[in-house]
Design brief:
This protein is mainly beta and 232 residues long. 10% of the residues lie in helices and 52% in strands. The protein is elongated.
Length: 232
Amino acid sequence: MKNLLIFLGLIVLSSPMANAQFGRDPILNLQNEDKKFLNWGYYLGFNQYDFQFEYKEDIGRDILVDKSFGFNVGLIGELRINEFLDARFEPGLLYTARTLGFPGFTNQVDAIREVRSTYIRFPFLLKASTRRIGNWKPFITAGVYTSINLGSNEDSLDDNSTGQFRMKQNVYGYELGFGIDFYTEYFKFTPSIRGVFALTDELVPDNDPNSPWTGNIAAMRTRGIFINFTFE
């Protein structure tokens, strides 16, 4: 992930658009863009999701999480509060996959569970920006979200004893991030990085309270990172 971020940063900074944004005395693009009371756009991006586990007892062996990259896509509705503050609603669709490795098993079929999730997300955010500097403007963002996990299997009667890993369908949490608005000739382009942190326990325990998969888990919460590219 670190190498990927460095690579993306080098591409952005070496591009002709970056030279236009950061050059001396640039021609100001979209000078009235931030004066609109309502603004609309869309975003595309990718994510990497993880799990944070809390255990009932410390047995010295953690559940392993093999992370992979997923994708994000969504819409943006923005309401201008003042020159430096905006309220944003960013409904979107997210796909991610994680592979869990449970300790204590000799059979790989029992030890491995693949968790594929498709979330419909509803984030409500505040965006705090600096004063515009030429054709770019840094910002930070923070807010809360609710999401629906379409692949939760919450209502399934089967559990890990039959190979079915279950999660709760509704998830609540918060997110923090930062980015830079770039004002091009025709639209505003925004790369941003965001951390996502679930507040709710997402695990549906197995039917057996002494289950070797979920019996020692007190809570399981999502942690993730987003890299989004916004067009407004």
